């Protein structure tokens, strides 16, 4: 009886979050949330593409760590401000791994973290390119492949700033993430006939280099504004992405999930 119960329990836990052998591309996987997603998926047996732009050392360190632990991964470099990279990144991932099952559009950031009255057009354009244009065009390439190969999943990493419109210094970022959520809805509707499931994960305040890069100073105040009174950690977001990518997420599409400590 004890043996049967154990087998029964293992069976359920085994397949619910199973991504073994799935081919998963994570953009912006050199640091922060993306690196954590890549590592978590690799530890669950997925073949992982670690995309990076400038953080070559961090991407290589992650690659070595995954391989040392028996996982399978490769690195792919591309600047997502350069639109010629969008098709290449998917082609190169498919060429390396023989297909693509899951795309996690995670790369993102803010150009020009400054009061909106002083915002320049270049910062607006680059922020939209990184957070909305690039994920759309990369998803479009993945979508075409998935449509011909029994479907797949696309998960876009958005932000609670899409809900609030961002702060006075990040209004353009909030708008770009709102555009990404609209892309999620559009692609999800286009994907239903082709078994392509598309969702957004809206992250709240997560303790990563993101905030250092933009020169944010009010970190303690930002944490106080979070109902759970702590900063998120990358794993908080990665767990939701794993849930959606695994069989647990097989009946979910066109949704926006907020993982933000109650924000
Ligand atoms: N941290 C938060 O509080 C928070 C909250 C809400 C949403 N998010 C979202 O979560 C995602 C991950 O952010 P994070 O906090 O993990 O920040 P992060 O540590 O700064 O990571 C950002 C990643 O995006 C890549 N990236 C940035 N600019 C790029 C470009 N031009 N071309 C290609 N890749 C580029 C970076 O690559 P390189 O370093 O290799 O250049 C890095 O891998 C982003 O979409 C962000 O908007 C974060």
Tell me what the structure shows.
Strands 3-2-1-4-5-6-7 form a seven-stranded parallel β-sheet, sandwiched between helices. The longest helix is centred in the middle third of the chain and has 28 residues, at 121-148. It has one domain (20-259): Rossmann fold (3-Layer(aba) Sandwich), CATH 3.40.50. 49% of the residues lie in helices and 15% in strands. The N and C termini lie far apart (45 Å). With 263 residues, the chain is of the alpha/beta class. The protein contains ten helices and seven strands. The chain is globular.
Keywords summarizing the entry:
globular, single chain, binds NADP nicotinamide-adenine-dinucleotide phosphate, 263 residues, seven-stranded parallel β-sheet, alpha/beta, Rossmann fold
The Rg value, from CA coordinates, equals: 18 Å
Q: Count of DSSP E strands?
A: 7
**CATH C-level name:** Alpha Beta
What small molecules accompany the polymer chains? NADP nicotinamide-adenine-dinucleotide phosphate
Overall pLDDT level: 95
Q: How many helix segments?
A: 10
Which geometry do the CA atoms define?
Answer: globular
Explain the layout of strands and helices.
Elements: H1 2-16, E1 23-26, H2 32-43, E2 47-52, H3 56-68, E3 72-77, H4 85-97, E4 102-105, H5 121-148, E5 152-159, H6 161-164, H7 171-191, E6 196-203, H8 209-214, H9 219-224, H10 234-245, E7 256-259
Helix pairs in contact: 2-10, 4-5, 5-7
Bound molecules: NADP nicotinamide-adenine-dinucleotide phosphate (NAP).
């Amino acid at each position: 009886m004890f043996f049967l119960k154990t087998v029964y329990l293992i069976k359920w836990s085994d397949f619910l979050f199973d991504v073994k052998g799935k081919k998963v591309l994570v953009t912006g996987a050199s640091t922060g949330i993306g690196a954590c997603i890549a590592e978590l998926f690799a530890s669950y047996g997925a073949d992982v593409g670690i995309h990076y732009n400038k953080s070559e050392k961090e991407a290589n360190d992650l690659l070595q760590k995954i391989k040392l632990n028996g996982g399978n991964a490769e690195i792919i470099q591309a600047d997502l401000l350069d639109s010629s990279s969008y098709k290449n990144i998917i082609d190169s991932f498919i060429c390396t791994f023989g297909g693509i099952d899951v795309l996690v559009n995670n790369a993102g950031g803010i150009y020009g973290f400054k009061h909106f009255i002083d915002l320049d057009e270049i910062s607006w354009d680059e922020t939209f390119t990184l957070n909305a244009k690039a994920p759309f065009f990369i998803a479009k390439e993945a979508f075409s492949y998935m449509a011909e190969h029994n479907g797949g999943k696309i998960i876009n990493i958005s932000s609670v700033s899409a809900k609030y419109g961002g702060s006075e210094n990040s209004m353009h970022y909030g708008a770009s993430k709102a555009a990404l959520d609209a892309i999620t809805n559009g692609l999800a509707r286009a994907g239903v006939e082709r078994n392509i499931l598309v969702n957004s994960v809206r992250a709240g305040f997560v303790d990563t280099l993101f905030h250092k890069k933009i020169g944010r100073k009010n970190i303690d105040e930002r944490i106080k504004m979070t109902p759970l009174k702590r900063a998120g950690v990358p794993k908080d977001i990665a767990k939701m992405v794993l849930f959606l990518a695994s069989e647990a997420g097989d009946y979910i599409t066109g949704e926006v999930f907020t993982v933000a400590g109650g924000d």
